[in-house]
Model the fold of this input.
Amino acid sequence: MNYKLGSIVIMKKPHPCGTNLWEITRMGVDIKLKCINCGRTIMIDKLEFDRKLKKVVEDEKEKL
Ligand SMILES: [Zn+2]
Done:
């Protein structure tokens, strides 16, 4: 799937806060994701990210 810095993605499991939208805020060996709803960030390695990624929504500009 095609994603880049600033992309909004949907993961297979929702965040406990109830939303399932994440923004990619850093890319490298690890991917840093920020929860769109509560602002919490998590880091996961790229392999795990690819496994848990469900869908790429769009670029940041379409967010809100
Ligand atoms: Zn959240």
About this structure: Residues 8-59 form one domain. The two ends are 22 Å apart (CA to CA). Strands lie at 8-11, 21-26, 30-35, 41-45, 53-58.
